[in-house]
Write a structure and sequence with these properties.
Beta-Lactamase, 4 domains, six-stranded mixed sheet, 46% helix
Length: 490
């Protein structure tokens, strides 16, 4: 077949492909005649898609190509198979390339997602499987819960941060999310840190499902510590505002009552004195009027205490070593206490010096020791300690007056602690109100007077107490640079 010319014509498409093949064949025959071609044969290339091309044979002589038909058919079949396989290979390569591009895109997306979760500064993110095993732990989770990434991954999330009382409920929720593919509603939770302490968080969840993989569960926790602190501060400010309003109302009422009461007492006392002048001591009416006069004097003392509560103190202030003042009066303090109560003291020499009215400072100590003794029903211990503290050491909680602020860098601290029955939290803010008492009717001016005296001396008092565990009262008075020269109170 050395005088033969062989060619291969292939077109893409099915119907269009077939039409083009016939068109090409007609053009080829015309061209063959013009070129002196005497014989021509066309063998179709067939696949499952139909005719995909032809093999053309041309000769310058008369030739019967049917003699080689079996060979040509075999050749055409092999070429068709090869071309079909080539097409399949190209399709597979395209599919593989597209899959690789998709996988690379997925890897890039996952990397961006992980970088975002890893570096987000305000949200702790944990990823875990349907069995609760931790698979992801970002940097904020490390800071918030105290576990390093290496300590958390591979461990059960329940054992890490879920409190024991919540674990059964959380286990059910994890299984429900894994089964349904739906997240549980976000909520505020109290979770555990590595050191066992609790942290308040706002927790929300997401379920990620990727074909061929078990569902991934993600927990997003926002630390509420600062928010809770601000809420507490806001509540404290509201409480202080209520206390200030109440104190202002009580002050106005107490002042008005005290002054009007004094005016009326003066009238009663004046008339009683005039009546007594007209009687002899042997007269039966003289004894009755004398008792009435004693009662008016006691009433005047109560009125005076109300003014003291308002800080309207009278007397001359002088440098006073309060340690020395307490030492001089220890026998009196011990005499007022039952034998079942032990009074222990810690009074340094020299003690801190304050600028105050000696008798009133003595009254503060006496009232506090008396209250401590009454708290120790059946016996107990009382500690009287005096020391010097800086302004930054003075507590803010349960401090009275509510609006008091330190005006000096150093303060004398008079501390009286008892082992008594303590004070309920709800009563701590009321114990300095006039006539409030948890004991019995007719009492309730002792701490009110203490607070009034401290108001007049620029001081404050803080309370620390818990039912069943006793109480600690700490009095803070500005320390004076003057030398004490005080004498014992009358």
């Amino acid at each position: 077949m050395g005088d033969c010319i062989c060619g291969l014509a292939v077109r893409e498409g099915k119907m269009l492909f077939s039409r083009n093949i016939h068109s090409d064949l007609r053009c080829t025959l015309i061209e063959c005649r013009q070129a002196g071609i005497r014989s021509f044969a066309a063998i179709p290339l067939r696949t499952g898609e139909g005719i995909i091309g032809v093999i053309g044979l041309a000769s310058l002589t008369d030739r019967d190509f049917e003699l080689q038909s079996a060979f040509l058919e075999t050749l055409a079949h092999q070429i068709s198979v090869a071309m079909a396989n080539a097409r399949l290979y190209e399709a597979a390569q395209r599919e593989l390339s597209e899959r690789k591009r998709a996988e690379e895109s997925l890897r890039r997306s996952e990397k961006r997602f992980q970088n975002l979760l890893q570096n987000i500064p305000s949200v702790a993110v944990q990823g875990y499987g349907p069995d609760g095993t931790t698979q992801y732990w970002n940097q904020t989770s490390e800071r918030l819960y105290g576990y390093r990434k290496e300590e958390a991954i591979g461990h059960n999330l329940l054992a890490l941060i879920i409190p024991p009382e919540m674990r059964e409920k959380v286990t059910r929720e994890i299984q429900w999310m894994a089964d349904t593919g739906k997240p549980i509603p976000p909520s505020e939770l109290s979770l555990m840190r590595k050191d066992g302490s609790r942290v308040a968080v706002f927790s929300s969840h997401a379920v990620v499902k990727i074909p061929g993989r078990p569902p991934e569960l993600f927990c997003f926790d926002i630390d509420l510590t600062e928010q809770k602190r601000m809420e507490r501060e806001h509540e404290d400010l509201e409480s202080q505002n209520r206390q200030l309003q109440k104190a202002e109302s009580l002050s106005r009422m107490a002042g008005a009552i005290a002054h009007h009461f004094n005016n009326q007492l003066m009238v009663v006392m004046g008339n009683l004195e005039m009546a007594l002048l007209d009687l002899t001591r042997d007269d039966i009416q003289f004894a009755k009027l004398s008792e009435a006069m004693k009662a008016t004097h006691k009433a005047r003392e109560v009125s005076s205490l109300m003014l003291t509560y308002l800080g309207q103190t009278t007397g001359k202030k002088a440098p006073t070593d309060i340690c020395e003042l307490c030492r001089q009066n220890l026998p009196l303090f011990r005499a007022t206490l039952p034998e079942t109560i032990h009074l222990e003291t810690d009074l340094p020499i020299p003690g801190p010096t304050i600028h105050g009215i000696t008798n009133q400072i003595w009254q503060v100590v006496t009232n506090l020791i008396t209250n401590a003794g009454e708290s120790c029903t059946g016996g107990g211990n009382i500690l009287l300690r005096i020391k010097t503290v800086g302004a930054e050491e003075i507590p803010r909680s349960h401090r009275h007056p509510i609006n008091w602020q330190p005006q000096s860098d150093r303060h004398a601290c008079l501390e009286i602690a008892d082992s008594g029955f303590g004070i309920d939290e709800k009563d701590i803010e009321k114990i300095f109100d006039p006539f409030f008492t948890s004991k019995f009717t007719g009492r309730g001016l002792g701490l009110a007077v203490v607070l009034g005296i401290l108001r007049g001396h620029g001081g404050a008092i803080a309370v620390e107490s818990e039912p069943g565990r006793g109480s600690i009262f700490r009095v803070f008075l500005p320390e004076s640079a003057e030398t004490s020269a005080s004498a014992p109170p009358e």
